[in-house]
Structures are given as C-alpha cells and as structure tokens.
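To: structure subgroup
Subject: Chain for Friday's discussion

All,

I'm putting the inputs and outputs inline so they're searchable in the archive.
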Amino acid sequence: MTADDDRQARLRALYAVLSAPEPSPSGQASDEEWTRWMDRVGADEALADVLHSAAHGARFDAAELAPHRETSERAGSRLDEATLAAAFRLLEQR
C-alpha cells in the first residue's frame, strides 16, 4: 500500500464516521439543545463532503479548509479533538 493509498483509506474511514446517521435529541430537548445538535451535524456534514472529495483526489489548501476548521471547532464534532486535528492534517497533505 502506498502512502497515498493509506491517506485515501484514512480519509474514507473518517468520511464513514461523519456520514453515518446521527440520532437527534429527544422530543423533550430544549431549543438550545436542538440548535447545538443542528450546528454540530451541519459542521460534520460539511467536513464529510470535504473528506469525500479529498478521498477521490481533490486537494485543498489551508485557506480553503479554514472555514471548515473554524466551524468544527465552534460547533463541535462527532470526532474527538485529536481525530479532528488528524483529519485536517490529512486534508492539508499534498
């Protein structure tokens, strides 16, 4: 397996995590909980789209990734902090 094959496999694995169904808050959840959930899910969906594109050969520079990084840091992610950082390092590789 080449380094690029390994990178693409890791990108696809991260995409699979972020594109999997995410259970919504219960019907008893507050508006604030729903808003936080929607913001996080939206950030994860946008990042999943970038990961999918990168796994199929697209390349991104730091300026293109900055809005996704900021949104993920602000809204949160299903990925833990270390995995999220690793995802952005993978995306920045040329």
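Points worth raising on Friday:
The chain has a mean pLDDT of 94.
The CA atoms of residues 18 and 48 lie 6 Å apart.

D.
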